[in-house]
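ESCALATION

Customer reports they have been waiting on this structure for their group meeting. Please prioritize. Original submission:
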Amino acid sequence: VYLAARATGAALGGRTAEFEAAAGALDANSVDISKAMGLAYGPEAEAAFLPLWRAHIGMVVDYTTGVAAKDQAKQDKAVADLVGYTQDFGAFLSSANENLPKDAVAGLVKDHVLTLKDVIDVQAAGDPKAQFMAIRGAGHHMSMIADPLAEATAVKFPDKFPGMGMGMMTPGTMPGSM
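Update from on-call: job pushed to the front of the queue and completed.
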């Protein structure tokens, strides 16, 4: 979230060098996340995850450029694409781990992409206090996604995460607050 906010803020502000650096850091983070997926779920999951993850970042970029150009049609398409992506991402995780119901994951990811949209909107409005609050809220929301995903992974692979998954959840239910 913080890397994305740096990239979108720089893009909206016309700071090309800063945008390129932030986008590079964001992509390196994407690669790191895919490697973490690979450690838990294997090389096929790692290979499938990265293009899926990068696709949603591209959609966020599309939304940002739509906001910068004041192109409502481009913004609307990007939001629709992001909402559609949540179903794809939910299906991907659900197929990898039966402890992650597709609709529950998709709902969490939908909230994530909408909090990123809010960040971009307040960045474009130029209100520093609102930007801080939106970025903080979006960052906080990430733990609402990461915690249940980590818990479900620990439950699925107790040998890889000894002591972390036992008794944490009932099979077939979404971990964490779900």
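Sent to customer with the following note: The longest helix spans residues 128-156.
Escalation resolved.
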